[in-house]
Design brief:
Elements lengths: L1 H10 L7 E7 L17 E5 L2 E4 L2 E4 L6 H14 L5 E2 L2 E3 L2 H8 L2 H18 L3 E4 L8 H20 L4 E7 L2 H7 L2 H7 L2 E5 L32 H10 L7 E6 L1 E7 L11 E4 L1 H4 E3 H11 L2 E3 L4 E6 L2 E5 L2 H14 L3 E5 L17 H9 L2
Parallel strand pairs: 1-2, 1-17, 2-5, 3-6, 6-7, 7-8, 8-9, 9-10, 10-17
Antiparallel strand pairs: 3-4, 11-12, 11-13, 11-16, 14-15, 15-16
Helix pairs in contact: 4-5, 11-12
């Protein structure tokens, strides 16, 4: 395992001491590939273009051509001086994942498809985003990753990254991952430290708090970045393999009473945008409504009449970076480039302020 850990850093010949993974969804018109910043991300994770289907990888054709998206990411890698690692994120519904991993023969067929695809598309790795391999598939997923590790090392001579997205909730970690075993064969774990509270809650709550609030008791004290990351370490995951998640969006709620608008205020249900708000929408809203910093949880939130929202922003990114450095984690990942401000609409004096802030703090 020590050899594998050392190898991670050989793959990233960069000035930064920490890694910054950046998810990017091509399926939107606001942030085009040509606009993506260089010198910020250590690896880019193209998401939404490639799916598991019939024991192989399937590239989408509509509403855009996924092969064009892959080509644009290779161009991005070139524009970044070939320091950037291109690692597409593999999606798929539960039935397709289970079919691909159901037995040894299916796994080997799928692995062969992965390797051939990686060669043809000139990739630097794969990220697996199965949400989630629970129950009996918990151990099956581990077995698959172990076999894939052996296969890619033989073909790519230890120059190919394997990563996975991992849910941050205790029940998800316990029921869906053999997390210590996985950490021995994966290069990185993208810990999804967001969506701790969501539109399904009956009261306001933060999507991506770093720390718990004093008023939270019992299981509620698990719903924060500090607890999730420490729990992975407690389970045997090396700190330098854990990348902490940041998001460029958050949740909205409709307040039950517009005069009660603090943390844990009663809500009727989702608010603006069907319960979602992006970073740019948030920064435009706070120009009128103002923002409120919660120094316990290290997040911003705002409210306007009967609407309440908390969204990942630049100040929260600063705090996440400080948390990562203070605790010796491997770095950060963002969701994502397509949700940052590519035109300085928010007037921070720079484009992609969330990503540039993370990169500055983690250098």
């Amino acid at each position: 395992m020590e050899k594998l850990i050392c190898f991670i850093f050989l793959l990233f010949p960069i000035v930064q001491s920490y890694l910054v993974g950046c998810y990017y969804d091509y399926n939107q018109p606001l942030v085009l590939p040509e606009q993506l910043p260089t010198g910020i991300c250590t690896h880019v994770l193209l998401i939404g273009a490639i799916f598991v289907r019939n024991l192989e990888l399937s590239v989408i054709e509509h509403p855009y051509n996924g092969f064009i998206a892959l080509e644009s990411m290779r161009d991005y890698r070139t524009r970044d001086g070939n320091k950037l690692k291109l690692i597409p994120s593999i999606l798929g519904d539960d039935a397709e994942w289970k079919s691909a991993l159901k037995d040894s023969d299916s796994q080997m067929t799928f692995i062969s498809s992965l390797i051939n695809f990686a060669k043809i598309q000139n990739l630097d790795g794969f990220d697996f985003d199965w949400e989630y391999p629970c129950g009996e598939y918990k151990s099956i997923y581990t077995s698959f990753i172990e076999k894939l590790r052996i296969a890619v090392d033989e073909v790519f001579h230890n120059e190919f990254l394997l990563t996975t997205a991992v849910g941050a909730g205790k029940n998800t970690i316990d029921n869906c991952y053999e997390i210590e075993k996985l950490s021995q064969v994966l290069d990185l774990i993208h810990l999804m430290t967001y969506d701790y509270h969501s539109i399904y809650d009956k009261q306001t709550g933060y999507s991506s708090p770093i720390y718990p609030k004093n008023v939270e008791v019992g299981d509620a004290r698990y719903y924060n970045t500090e607890w999730s990351a420490a729990y992975l370490v407690e389970q045997g995951v090396p700190r330098n393999k854990i990348l902490i998640g940041l998001e460029g969006l958050g949740h909205t709620f409709q307040l039950n009473n517009s005069n009660i608008h603090d943390f844990a205020a009663p809500v009727i249900g989702p608010g603006y945008g069907g319960g979602w708000m992006t970073f740019i929408e948030f920064c435009l809203l706070v120009r009128t409504a103002g923002s409120h910093w919660d120094d316990e949880a290290k997040v911003n939130y705002t409210y306007y009449k009967d609407q309440w929202t908390n969204v990942g922003d630049v100040r929260a990114a600063e705090e996440k970076a400080l948390f990562i450095k203070a605790n010796g984690y491997g770095g950060a990942f963002t969701f994502g480039l397509h949700l940052d401000d590519s035109a300085d609409i928010c007037q921070y004096g720079e484009t992609f302020p969330i990503h540039r802030t993370i990169a500055r703090y983690l250098q």
